Amino acid sequence: MSTHSDLPLTVPPAEGPPGSRTHLRFFRHLEASSPWLGSRASLRPRDATHFEGDTLQAKFARALCERSALPAKELFEATETFELVRKRVRRPVVADLCAGHGLAGLLFAVFERSVESVLLVDRERPASADVLLDAAAEVAPWAPAKIQWRVEALKRTSLPNGTGVIAIHACGLRTDASMELALAARGPFAALPCCRPHRLHPAPTSLKNALGADVAIDVHRTYALENAGYRVRWQEIPAAITPMNRVLSAAPPPVGA
Ligand SMILES: C[S@@+](CC[C@H](N)C(=O)[O-])C[C@H]1O[C@@H](n2cnc3c(N)ncnc32)[C@H](O)[C@@H]1O
Q1: Which of the residues 18, 125, 203, 243 has the least number of beta carbons within 10 Å of its own beta carbon?
Q2: d(CA 210, ligand 1 centre) in Å
Q3: How far is the CA of 100 from the centre of ligand 1 (A)?
Q4: Is 100 exposed, middle or buried (0-12, 13-18, 19+ CB in 10 A)?
Q5: Closest ligand 1 atom to the C-alpha of 77?
Q6: Domains and CATH numbers, the chain
Q7: Ligand 1 in contact with 171 (CB < 6 A)?
């Protein structure tokens, strides 16, 4: 049986200028510029040959390939974002908001020993969620007991104090709604925003015009977090995975500060 002790030692990645990395952070043997990383085609059993070895990462990836569980792009979006923010977001309770298949949350359940409970929140629970959970159970038997699904809209969600929040491609204003839930819980927050609602978003029009709406919206989000005492970081996953590749992450002020 696999255990948490299978987890590899974590070596902090050297941070060069954005886009300068040659290899992925989570699957370190894969080249960061490979067009396959952005493929919307489902992983297939024969793709398991890309993930050789005895690490838990490789075993989980092979289990996903064997089940044709999800598109390659979605595997790499979740794993690269996870690797960037895992230390910042991990808390006893982690919530994956607009979770879809729930891979980001599952990664916390599988790879982060200190995470006791993972809330997967989405207004729908797709069939693929059970396929991914089955793959996780095969290689990380401790993971399923940590998972709680909440089939509900974000506006109906509330989170326990201190919950770590992750929102991957939550779409439009739902990234902002996820941020508000993290702020209300005074927990850390990480997002890989995708389509930004240029007209609807309350970022100043002057900034949208001067900086471009996508940047202005993330600047506005950054100020909202900093004004609440959070420390914010902007990072990127490789553009070969998705052009919508900016990762915002934010750590709350220490309790009592
Ligand atoms: C683009 S998908 C992203 C899914 C997943 N995070 C991923 O990385 O693949 C957006 C998800 O948001 C969910 N969603 C849309 N509106 C929602 C709402 N109001 N409350 C909760 N989930 C919502 C959809 O059901 C969908 O699963």
Answers
A1: 243
A2: 30
A3: 5
A4: buried
A5: 8
A6: 71-251 (3.40.50.150)
A7: yes
Task: Calculate how far, in angstroms, residue 174's C-alpha sits from the geometric centre of ligand 1.
Answer: 8
- pTM for this prediction: 0.92
Written as six digits, the tokens of 118 are 């993972």
Q: Helices (DSSP H) in 24-167: which residue ranges?
A: 56-66, 72-89, 103-111, 127-139
* Bridge-based pairing state of the strands 189-192 and 164-168: parallel
> Which residue's C-alpha comes closest to atom 14 of ligand 1?
98
Each residue's pLDDT tens digit in the chain (257 positions)? Answer: 444 444 443 344 445 566 678 999 999 999 999 999 999 999 999 999 999 999 999 999 999 999 999 999 999 999 999 999 999 999 999 999 999 999 999 999 999 999 999 999 999 999 999 999 999 999 999 999 999 999 999 999 999 999 999 999 998 999 999 999 999 999 999 999 988 788 888 899 999 999 999 999 999 999 999 999 999 999 999 999 999 999 999 999 987 77
